[in-house]
Specification:
alpha/beta; 11 helices; 9 strands; globular
Length: 327
């Protein structure tokens, strides 16, 4: 039976993320009533008391669409990714963390041992005289307590299981959420593997004036006395608009804040950070670096305080080089 002739079955899951995507679902306001009229939500741990065992008991493919937000950090999240893939006809990577690893993916700059050492042993706000670290099993008088295994690296959803569609954003804009839900309800989804967002960059949605000016320095936004109504890059502020897929209506830029890249790479771009680095090099004049004194190159590069956090804030886990190499 076509999905348009019966009530749909939806599922939502929250992996390694902040929970903002869960709130974004409610940000569609009264349109949530239309969703409720068109679909039953069978699984939503943040709001519905459905057990994992209930999902396991469902027939494979029983859920029409699962919106999976969050990256994969633990064995529990990986297990649920495989389970929900099996039980869902369509799996959507919902938000930047599921689609690209998101901000949790920046943890790939360290391994599990270093993360535990920082969080539980050498943190000035932590009192741990026994130097106890989390373990998968702990025995107490009542029995054995278990915790999910903390993986050594963060992965995006598609690095763990097959994904049908990607809905980017941190969180996804409500207009894109509604577009995706309406496409499901009407049976008008694009080809598998599509990103449900326009095939244009944030720059194309930005209202600021642009020219061909070259930069002589990089400045952070708090160092600019007055941000003007012109391209932030031209004012020396790093903005990832040229390398980021649009669909957000450039809302951050309307608030005079630079794009940080949550929409993911533009179409036909293999690596979002790499594309932005190339774009920045061209307007800084670094493409002709052989003609520049070493001191000038160092001065320009020193203006980029946190290169990985700047160019791979949301996409490190899915980048071509996606973690710190050990050894």
């Amino acid at each position: 039976m076509p999905v348009t002739e019966r009530k749909l079955k939806f599922a939502f899951y929250w992996g390694a993320s902040c929970g903002g995507c869960e709130i974004a679902v409610l940000d569609i306001d009264e349109k949530i009533l239309d969703v409720a009229a068109a679909a039953d939500i069978l699984f939503w741990p943040v709001a519905v008391d459905t057990k994992y065992s209930d999902v396991e008991a469902m027939e494979d493919g029983f859920i029409d669409v699962c919106f999976f937000n969050g990256a994969i950090r633990t064995s529990e999240q990986e297990e649920l990714a495989h389970l929900l893939r099996r039980k869902s006809g369509c799996l959507v990577a919902f938000g930047s963390c599921a689609a690209m690893g998101g901000i949790p993916g920046l943890a790939n700059l360290a391994n599990r041992d270093k993360i535990f050492e920082t969080a539980y042993l050498d943190n000035p706000s932590t009192s741990n005289p026994g130097r106890t670290l989390p373990s998968k099993e702990s025995r107490v008088k009542e029995g054995t307590l278990t915790l999910p295994e903390f993986h050594d690296r963060v992965r995006a959803l598609h690095q763990v299981t097959d994904v049908d569609y990607f809905l980017p954003g941190c969180p996804p804009p409500t207009n894109l959420i509604l577009e995706a839900v309406n496409a499901v309800i009407k049976g008008e989804l694009p080809p598998k593997g599509s990103v449900i967002a326009p095939e244009k960059s944030v720059c194309e949605e930005c209202r600021f004036e642009k020219s061909e000016k070259m930069l002589t320095e990089i400045r952070r936004i708090y160092e600019v006395e007055k941000v003007e109504d012109r391209c932030l890059l031209e004012q020396g502020i790093i903005c990832l608009g040229p390398a980021t897929r649009g669909g957000c209506s450039a809302r951050c830029l309307d608030a005079y804040m630079p794009c940080t890249g949550c929409g993911g790479p533009t179409p036909n771009s293999m690596d979002q950070g790499g594309k932005m680095i190339s774009a920045l090099a061209s307007i800084l004049g670094l493409e002709g670096e052989e003609a520049l004194p070493d001191e000038e190159i160092e001065r320009l590069l020193d203006g980029i305080v946190d290169p990985v956090g700047t160019f791979y804030k949301y996409g490190l886990a899915a980048a071509l080089i996606n973690r710190r190499l050990e050894g």
